[in-house]
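Structure (tokenized):
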């Protein structure tokens, strides 16, 4: 098999799952042309019904296509000549886009006998194969998020690619961790232009030096040798050769005197996370890390402390994506909160840790009633159109959200609301999402320069010695 050279103008054949995943994919191929096979339109038509995110995406694609066709009605033969995608000027710059074509006739079956053309994927593959034969001046590329279809395309000699536009990073290892280890000679190289002062019980430093250019606002700094831990509060002249950073010493939540709702941090990263969770100036916090690192426990403890003790928030709202690990158990009876209960096992487990464990049954029951009054479990399906005022919102299992779903949730926040997103990119259960395209990866990368957001990657498990050993061994 001879692989085509990727040069010059290209013709992309789009699979259905690309448009279902991202309706704006039509406008993401710049000056190159796009062809949509007829079977893709059939599959879009079959998937337009319902209230799911996929169904909404399909309906949006249909609206885009209808707008393009209505604009092109005055052209002589839009189906043959193609419709300039840039005609939808409110979407993108019209000068930067190619044309969109639709399949208007059947192509001779060019697939091997082992690939029956009655299947939708094979029909799309056959269209790409036929176009490759007719278009010697263009590289025909099949774009699909279906790995098996891309494998079949390579077997029959059709160039194929994944849809890369929703990819945040090339490698998840490049993801912002939220903390930075200072070298041993840091104070020798940065102490010349340093100011320090105390204000309302907090210690601040103003530092200028070469390492400041590598920092982000609300990034945690530490130096193990001197047990120095601080957070970057502001960076002046960030684009210059010698920026100045304002840093503040952090509270050590590993100390029993600084416990939050009865718990203390067990490691450095947990202490960093509690500093950001307890900071009223940080409206958006993301916690990423493996199972057992304490993400849910820290977020709940900080929420209860600030809602009940400090009266900073009126209510705690907990939600998560309802994606099953195994087989679906079917419809669940009851109210919205009762239907969400099976998905909130992690919440209930952590509430047991945060509740009294003595033998006073009346006290335990009273505490549980109090917590249920403050904590409300809500479904993601009913978030559109809502505005949350003075709420502490916890979004669990955020790695299963797409970037669009994440945007929908975060934009629900009203004045005085804090949003905490938690997830583990190594445990993604949603189809077509990967570590580099997950919603939590998207927001961590996009929010890392905003002064009212913070992120911490938790690395050390604190569940039990059995769980830690199993995570490493298995």
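Design, position by position:
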């Amino acid at each position: 098999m001879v692989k085509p050279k990727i040069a010059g103008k290209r013709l992309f054949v789009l699979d259905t799952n690309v448009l279902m995943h991202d309706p704006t994919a039509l406008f993401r191929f710049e000056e190159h042309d796009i062809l949509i096979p007829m079977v893709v339109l059939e599959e879009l038509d079959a998937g337009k019904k319902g209230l799911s995110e996929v169904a909404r995406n399909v309906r949006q694609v249909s609206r885009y296509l209808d707008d393009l066709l209505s604009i092109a009605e005055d052209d002589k033969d839009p189906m043959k000549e193609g419709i300039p995608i840039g005609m939808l000027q409110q979407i993108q710059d019209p000068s930067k886009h190619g044309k969109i074509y639709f399949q208007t006739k059947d192509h001779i079956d060019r697939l091997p006998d082992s690939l029956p053309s009655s299947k939708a994927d094979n029909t799309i593959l056959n269209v790409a194969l036929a176009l490759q034969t007719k278009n010697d001046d263009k590289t025909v590329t099949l774009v699909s998020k279906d790995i098996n279809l891309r494998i079949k395309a390579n077997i029959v000699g059709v160039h194929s690619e994944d849809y890369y536009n929703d990819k945040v990073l090339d490698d998840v290892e490049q993801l912002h961790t939220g903390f930075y280890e200072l070298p041993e000679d840091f104070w020798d190289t940065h102490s010349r232009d340093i100011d320090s002062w105390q204000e309302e019980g907090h210690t601040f430093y103003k530092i200028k030096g070469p390492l400041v250019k590598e920092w982000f606002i609300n990034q945690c700094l530490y130096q193990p040798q001197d047990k120095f831990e601080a957070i970057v509060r502001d960076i002046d002249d960030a684009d210059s050769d010698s920026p100045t950073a304002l840093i503040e010493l952090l509270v050590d939540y590993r100390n029993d005197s600084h416990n939050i709702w009865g718990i203390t941090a067990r490691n450095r990263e947990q202490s960093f996370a509690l500093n950001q969770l307890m900071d009223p100036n940080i409206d958006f916090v993301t916690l990423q890390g493996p199972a057992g690192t304490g993400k849910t426990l820290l977020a709940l403890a900080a929420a209860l402390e600030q809602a009940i003790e400090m009266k900073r928030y009126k209510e705690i709202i907990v939600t998560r994506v309802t994606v099953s690990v195994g087989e679906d158990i079917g419809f669940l009876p009851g109210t919205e909160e009762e239907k969400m209960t099976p998905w909130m096992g992690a919440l209930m487990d952590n509430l047991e840790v945060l509740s009294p464990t003595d033998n006073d049954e009346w006290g335990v029951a009273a505490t549980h009633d109090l917590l249920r009054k403050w904590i409300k479990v809500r479904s993601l399906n009913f978030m559109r159109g809502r505005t949350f005022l003075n709420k502490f919102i916890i979004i669990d299992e955020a790695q299963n959200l797409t970037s669009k779903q994440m945007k929908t949730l975060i934009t629900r926040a009203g004045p005085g609301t804090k949003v905490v997103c938690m997830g583990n990119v190594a445990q993604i259960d949603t189809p077509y999402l990967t570590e580099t395209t997950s919603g939590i990866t998207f927001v961590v990368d996009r929010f890392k320069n905003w002064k009212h957001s913070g992120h911490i990657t938790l690395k050390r498990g604190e569940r039990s010695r059995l769980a830690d050993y199993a995570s490493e061994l298995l």
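Reviewer-requested clarification: The first strand starts at residue 10 and ends at 14. The longest helix spans residues 53-71.
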